[in-house]
């Protein structure tokens, strides 16, 4: 999720001593950075030694070193917690509100269609707007509470146990304690998909730590495979798209709605494909024929058909169907990615936007066009690959559907390399949830039915790992994520074991 600007650069302090505040140590000897070249002055609150004479204004690097060495006061700690809460709220409300706004605009556009072509709405526009406002407020409170809780617990533990003595574990504990704030999005709302996705992100960070570790480096080396992200996407696609056709109930409701929109097929068509793949008699061929007639296509379906191509695209050949579907899918994908790129541009590059607006907006529009092409190619290739497979083997069954949807993930190669791992992990989280739901419904994992709010437990464990890596293993983060965490939480008071980057 999208990064704001980083805090002011620490300059030479990061390079010289990792940006440390207050005291550092070598072995058991404690040496305050303020006393390396000094004598005389006021008392140092950090080590009870003597502060140096304030540096002259002609030495900015020394002046920044002194300022960076002053520990937080009580008022600064409170201000840090309040600021983190406000920034967390603004990010949560901004992202959720932006997506809700585009969803409402898309809804209004659908309402402007003729009554004959319009689908019946489940609730009114007014109810949709109220629901969007509630969701925006909930997600704002969730991220605001998470940020405020983490900073507060971090500062309380540091005050009671000392920054240095608690440096290796307090952020882990603070992240775990802040995790249950996800309940603010709705006490009865399950967030299994989100929790699994955050767990995937935590696993990536943990694997990066393992790669640079002498003990676990060889074990984690396969994780550095160049095209591992595309393989994960193919693996996820096989489960997700098979579930989209065969068992939609295993997918989260919001994701199922997303697939139904961008899959571009009427539910009656999906039901027909499901029946022929499952080897059960057709129950809705007449409904499929009526649907095509409403679209201006007169078709008579054979109840003894072996492959579902005529169900999927009527009288249209497979090749022309793939081209026309790609164009339609691209139009559907554009409204999805506009907020994904434009909203971060307003937050992340808010300062540069005034200096070079055409460059920033140009990159955002280019990213929107590229990502829209990925999504449209992904959706259209799902039908292309399955049609090819069905025609080669002259049959359709569940294994064929799973195999045919596997190469769909190759469309991820269209995306930017930096975004591929994000998308593949996002889809992997949903594939894992769908897989375990299918296994549970089949009776292979009956115990999972008795677990209550496991999503909160998974989320808390994940945030504990992520926040620990943020404070102790900062180099495993990509700079854009590190920047947004620094902007929200404030750069944590570092320790000798906490490598700091220079702010970019």
Automatic annotation (TrEMBL):
It is a multi-pass membrane protein. Belongs to the TMEM135 family. Its main location: membrane. This is Uncharacterized protein LOC116189089 isoform X1. The keyword Membrane applies. PANTHER family: TRANSMEMBRANE PROTEIN 135, TRANSMEMBRANE PROTEIN 135-RELATED. It comes from Punica granatum (Pomegranate). The lineage of its organism: Eukaryota, Viridiplantae, Streptophyta, Embryophyta, Tracheophyta. Signal peptide: none annotated. Residues 1-25 are annotated as: Disordered. GO terms for cellular component: endomembrane system. Residues 318-437 form the Transmembrane protein 135 N-terminal domain. It comes from the Eukaryota.
């Amino acid at each position: 999720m999208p990064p704001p600007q980083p805090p002011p650069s620490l300059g030479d302090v990061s390079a010289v001593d990792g940006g440390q505040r207050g005291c550092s140590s070598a072995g058991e000897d404690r040496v305050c950075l303020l006393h390396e070249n000094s004598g005389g002055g006021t008392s140092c609150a950090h080590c009870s030694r003597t502060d140096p004479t304030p540096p002259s204004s002609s030495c900015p690097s020394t002046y920044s070193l002194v300022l960076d060495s002053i520990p937080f006061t009580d008022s600064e700690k409170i201000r840090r917690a309040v600021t983190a809460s406000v920034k967390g709220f603004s990010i949560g409300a901004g992202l959720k509100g932006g997506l809700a706004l585009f969803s409402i605009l898309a809804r209004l556009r659908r309402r402007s269609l003729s009554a004959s072509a319009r689908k019946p709405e489940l609730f009114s526009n007014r109810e949709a707007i109220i629901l969007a406002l509630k969701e925006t407020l909930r997600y704002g409170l969730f991220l605001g509470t998470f940020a405020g809780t983490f900073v507060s617990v971090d500062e309380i533990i540091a005050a009671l146990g000392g920054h240095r003595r608690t440096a290796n574990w307090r952020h882990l504990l603070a992240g775990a304690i802040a995790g249950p704030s996800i309940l603010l999005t709705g006490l009865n709302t399950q967030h299994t998909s989100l929790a699994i996705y955050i767990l995937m992100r935590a696993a990536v960070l943990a694997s990066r730590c393992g790669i640079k570790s002498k003990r676990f480096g060889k074990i984690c080396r396969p994780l550095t495979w160049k095209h591992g992200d595309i393989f994960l996407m193919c693996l996820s696609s096989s489960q997700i798209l098979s579930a989209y056709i065969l068992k939609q109930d295993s997918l989260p409701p919001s994701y199922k709605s997303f697939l139904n929109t961008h899959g571009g097929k009427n539910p009656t068509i999906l039901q027909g494909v499901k029946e022929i793949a499952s080897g059960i008699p057709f129950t809705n061929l007449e409904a499929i024929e009526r649907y095509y007639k409403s679209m201006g296509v007169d078709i008579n379906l054979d109840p003894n058909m072996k492959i579902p191509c005529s169900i999927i695209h009527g009288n249209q050949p497979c090749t022309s169907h793939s081209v026309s579907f790609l164009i339609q899918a691209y139009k559907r994908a554009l409204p999805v990615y506009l907020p994904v790129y434009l909203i971060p541009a307003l937050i992340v590059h808010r300062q540069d936007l005034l200096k070079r607006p055409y460059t920033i907006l140009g990159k955002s529009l280019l990213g929107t066009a590229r990502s829209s092409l990925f999504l449209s190619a992904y959706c259209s290739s799902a039908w292309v690959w399955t049609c090819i497979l069905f025609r080669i083997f002259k049959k359709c069954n569940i294994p064929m559907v799973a195999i045919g949807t596997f190469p769909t993930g190759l469309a991820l190669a269209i995306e930017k390399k930096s975004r591929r791992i994000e998308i593949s992990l996002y889809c992997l989280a949903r594939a894992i949830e769908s897989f375990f739901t299918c296994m549970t419904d089949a009776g292979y994992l009956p115990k999972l039915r008795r677990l209550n709010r496991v999503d909160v437990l998974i989320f808390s464990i994940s945030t504990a790992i992520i926040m620990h890596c943020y404070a102790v293993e900062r180099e495993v983060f990509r700079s854009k994520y590190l920047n947004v965490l620094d902007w929200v939480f404030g750069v944590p008071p570092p320790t000798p074991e906490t490598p700091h980057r220079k702010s970019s």
